[in-house]
Amino acid sequence: MDDILIEQYKKIAKFLAACLGKDYEVAIHEIKNDELKLVCLENGDISKRTINAPLSELALRFISDEKYKNSDYEVNYKGLSGDNVLRSSTFFIKNDKGKLIGLLCINFNIGHINKSIKKINDELKELFDIVDTNNYVEETNVEYFTEDISNVISNIIEPIIRKKNLPVARLSFDEKMLLIEELKKQGVFLLKGAVSEAAIQLHSSEASIYRYLKKTKDA
Hints:
DauR-like_HTH; alpha+beta; YheO; Beta-Lactamase; Transcriptional regulator DauR; DauR-like
């Protein structure tokens, strides 16, 4: 039944992309067998992703924070992909039992709009010496789109490493546990290849990562 529902949403994604036009990317992520996969992508040149690309760390956080239990969607947060600035929204796909089985994501490319607004503001400031009021997109949550899972993981652990000044090449057991717990908390290990990439970035073996995972608080 869940597979049938996802197939219906794939058709909806194609319909939305056709209706909204080339400035709108529409994606379907499926959650199946404890793994997250991008299974449908329309106008993918906007985020420069392809099928099976990893979910962004912000979307993973929506899942790990169980936002879907109290809301059907999250709308109008900022997305970034290369030079493209996006206005992004996510709809939580749930089955008849309320279980989250996927995400429908729409990303509107507003980069050219922002450039036009900035040009107008710059000209107005020159003419009238006014303050720039270009606050087109809410900055509280920012989503970074990537084709590479290594970027998802590094975007999560690098701020912690910088803040705590951790020695990346010689992390202690407790320091590695701290990073593994944060990655798990944000749902990174739902992504294919996450264990292998975490092992590379934490200078550990895959077997060690699995051992750390078994020792995490909610294991």
